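Hi all, posting the design record for the shared folder.

TITLE: backbone redesign
STEP: 1 of 1
STRUCTURE INPUT:
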């Protein structure tokens, strides 16, 4: 791995790379997050019973606002908005369950107006709550930070693995389905239904699951990334993931696994208009539901920001954390205005920063501009969508494993010999993170109101680690130096 070092007096996070490098590295970030970015509008659009043309509009709107939110977060709109780290913003899956529940009871344009109204209100309230959430930073010493980042890596691993193998029998999230199998997925949903709007009925099986061709392509991608990172130097080493994806895409096209029908059908330009479905309505219950989602999102974002702080060697202060959380709220408000959904930092891209060592936030600024272009030019978005997710699977193993390895590196600085209680913090919290991974339907008998709180292994691990650390070690008021310890990078 080759790291950017920055020019004299310029931190690598603030380094402005040459434009061709920015575009190439930014496109690499876009490819990593694209499958996840388009999944939520597909799921919610179907739950709202919208026409295929309206669902396609939701996808374009989502990509457009992804780009705007990324610019706000990485570039920093003002001193009050934006963490100014290499962050790619995307729709959070924490909101899928509640949004589908809202949509199921209110289909069509009326339901869309109520949903987007709730999202706008929740985004505004999140902006107001951001300073209070940021004060939790003192509850994130290295033992908590390392555990949470390790949990992020563990929770991401099933995504990369299912990118390789596809959709199996039983409850698996549709976001993991290869776009090439979209027609099969639509038939399966129509036949079996989608409980809670997220998971397929257990009777549906995927005949293409773990196909040998998929595994071979993922292995080719992984081998390419390893060879490039080992043998190449400089810029080529930094784009090892992109090269691996490109090689896998070419192989998939040669094997007939890429289909370009949607590219031919897509428009060259589509303007994203606000309030496409009409002026929003504000239902108090829906607003409260989405506010709960935003609190969950901000807690998860805190872990993401600390992970990036660790990778970028730029400690996060309480003021900076508040600015990053406000950007989550502002991005969510814009999402509601432009007919899309709540936004958060994408953990997949945190892993990419760890793999490449490229810490410049302007790479993500370039990625945000590319997302805006993809949103305005549906034909380009359809071309990227035609890439089979098995190609991303080989890269996912590297990137998501890198996140987990970063957590291990932080934990290596924790005193386990002198304070055996730290072992309990890590052991129990990692176990909590594994619950949704191993038993995704564990919450089926729990009240639906608390499902957003327990669906995420990352959130369960964060809550567990914070509470256990407070129980064993306390959480005294910390000075600035102690706050920085949560994001301190080990000496190279």
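Okay, here is what came back for every position:
SEQUENCE:
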């Amino acid at each position: 791995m080759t790291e950017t070092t920055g020019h004299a007096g310029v931190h690598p996070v603030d380094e402005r790379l040459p434009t061709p490098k920015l575009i190439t590295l930014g496109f690499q970030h876009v490819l990593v997050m694209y499958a996840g970015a388009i999944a939520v509008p597909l799921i919610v659009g179907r739950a709202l019973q919208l026409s295929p043309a309206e669902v396609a509009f939701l996808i374009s709107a989502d990509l457009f606002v992804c780009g705007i939110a990324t610019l706000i977060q990485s570039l920093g709109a003002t001193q009050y908005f934006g963490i100014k780290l290499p962050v790619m913003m995307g729709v959070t899956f924490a909101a899928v369950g509640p949004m589908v529940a809202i949509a199921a009871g209110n289909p069509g344009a009326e339901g869309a107006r109520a949903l987007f109204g709730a999202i706008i209100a929740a985004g505004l309230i999140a902006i107001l709550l951001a300073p209070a959430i940021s004060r939790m930073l003192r509850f994130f010493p290295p033992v908590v930070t390392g555990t949470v980042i390790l949990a992020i890596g563990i929770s991401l691993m099933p995504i990369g693995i299912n990118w390789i193998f596809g959709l199996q029998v039983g409850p698996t999230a549709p976001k993991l389905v290869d776009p090439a199998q979209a027609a099969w997925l639509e038939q399966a949903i129509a036949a079996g239904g989608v409980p809670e709007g997220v998971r397929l009925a257990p009777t549906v099986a995927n005949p293409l699951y773990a196909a040998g061709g998929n595994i071979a392509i993922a292995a080719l991608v992984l081998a390419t990334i390893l060879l490039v990172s080992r043998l190449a130097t400089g810029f080529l080493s930094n784009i090892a993931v992109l090269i691996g994806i490109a090689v896998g895409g070419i192989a998939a096209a040669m094997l007939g696994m890429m289909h370009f029908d949607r590219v031919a059908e897509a428009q060259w330009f589509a303007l994203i208009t606000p309030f496409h479905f009409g002026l929003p309505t504000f239902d108090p219950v829906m607003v409260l539901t989405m506010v709960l989602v935003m609190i969950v999102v901000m807690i998860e974002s805190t872990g993401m920001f600390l992970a990036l702080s660790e990778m970028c060697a730029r400690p996060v202060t309480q003021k900076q954390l508040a600015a990053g959380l406000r950007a989550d709220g502002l991005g969510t408000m814009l999402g509601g205005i432009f007919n899309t959904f709540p936004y958060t930092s994408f953990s997949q891209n945190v892993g990419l920063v760890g793999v490449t060592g490229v810490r410049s936030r302007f790479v993500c600024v370039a990625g945000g501009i590319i997302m805006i272009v993809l949103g305005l030019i549906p034909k380009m978005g359809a071309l990227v969508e035609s890439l089979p997710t098995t190609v991303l699977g080989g890269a996912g193993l590297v990137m998501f494993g890198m996140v987990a390895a970063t957590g291990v590196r932080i934990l290596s600085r924790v005193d386990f010999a002198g304070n055996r209680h730290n072992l309990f913090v890590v052991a129990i919290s990692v176990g909590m993170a594994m619950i949704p991974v191993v038993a995704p339907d564990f919450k089926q008998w729990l009240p639906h109101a608390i499902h957003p709180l327990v669906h995420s292994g990352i959130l369960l691990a964060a809550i567990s680690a914070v509470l256990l650390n407070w129980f064993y070690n306390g959480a005294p008021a910390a000075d600035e130096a102690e706050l920085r310890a949560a994001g301190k990078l080990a000496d190279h």
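COMMENT: The first strand starts at residue 89 and ends at 91.
Let me know if anyone wants the other runs.
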